Amino acid sequence: MKMLKDAILNQGKAINEHVLLVDSFLNHQVDVALMDAIGAEFAAFFKDKKVDRVLTIESSGIAPAAFTAKYLNVPLVIMKKQTSKIMTGDLLQTEVRSFTKGTEYQLTVKRMFLPKGDNVLFIDDFLASGEAAFGALSLIKKAEASICGIGIVIEKSFQDGRKRLDELGIPVCSLARIKHMSSNTIEFLE
Amino acid sequence: MKMLKDAILNQGKAINEHVLLVDSFLNHQVDVALMDAIGAEFAAFFKDKKVDRVLTIESSGIAPAAFTAKYLNVPLVIMKKQTSKIMTGDLLQTEVRSFTKGTEYQLTVKRMFLPKGDNVLFIDDFLASGEAAFGALSLIKKAEASICGIGIVIEKSFQDGRKRLDELGIPVCSLARIKHMSSNTIEFLE
Known about the structure:
Two copies of one chain form a homodimer. The first copy, chain A, is α/β, with parallel strands linked by helices. Chain A has helices at residues 2-11, 32-45, 62-72, 131-142, 161-167; strands at 13-14, 20-21, 29-30, 53-57, 76-79, 91-98, 103-110, 119-127, 146-156, 172-181, 186-188.
């Protein structure tokens, strides 16, 4: 997706070989026109998958996922990294470790918002080792729902998350695939 | 806003006199068509305020704020409740206490994403005692930017946040104002 790749090249900053700073357009300051275009792109890619709902993780996935859900005309469900005292009832949970941020969290969703049998499209901002995606897959499985696709804004193709998802036969759409990066260069796969 | 009030009456649940559960359409499962309509409503209300950027707090404010920013054709900036090791540089911070959730957090934004002199529209899901809004005002002041309006999806008018903001002369647009609620009833102010 040219508009996204241009944003990465012009506004992104590779801190080192593993960390890409995109806080000027994706996860702190947000280029909403770009998010809208990303939503349209994901919706077009997955239009034949009979998507019942879009699933994402707070908070950087929300903007691209919201526009995707709007274009698909389905509800969005936001999995929580933190629960609150008013989040009660039948909860589905799994532990996820973020390598980039060096943190662990309990990914949580109310079972009623992930109905049995639903076709779920998972959207996230980054795919690296796939920990967040596999956390989502774990909750979708616990809910007895089905994954019909995964939409990723930026894929770090030099990590093994994409390979692990491909091996499961899940349709993955990554809008920018980074082959290699260093503090001076960002190189795309295709 | 009728569409929103209908969602509150039909899908919301007053847990007690202070806590309103709206996780089926606003902050866990999200009705994206409603968020889009909310964005259009805020954009129309503040169209003459020369808004330079929309500001919100992760994570429940992001969906309504993203659609507002889209309609106003300006960037969205998401203030963080948690920082990460890749969030460095010149940070503006203030402490906010959430009465509903019983938690405290450091509200954080990079100074570069809240430029001096910008007209800022703050959007949030709830206004109760106004702690989050006053946290936002504190950061806007530290940034030497200006607040040009506050858009609130659901106002708990029985708490004093709205009164405190009105006293400062800030234009506030609340799309649903709740006068009173109990476990059986939700009553709107207007």
